[in-house]
Amino acid sequence: MFHYTQITKDNIVITKTTTHTQQTTTQDTIDCTTHSCVAITFDDGPQEYTEELLDILAKNNIKVTFFVIGNKAQKYPNTIKRMYRE
Q: Can you tell me whether residue 2 is helix, strand or coil?
């Protein structure tokens, strides 16, 4: 599954493509001129507390962007997979 988010000053566009075999794409646009929009990022992870953070984000249906560091991704491969899924 592929997710792409494009953020501009007026819109957030979220494009979701299902598995490669299905080739189904949906797109949602959120108009930030009429809705309050916030883009949240977490950098330099994952770390030992990332799983707990993911639990909190999932419980509250909050979507974020993670910027990861290669050696930390290798150290926490299951966390990386979960970050991708959620």
A: strand
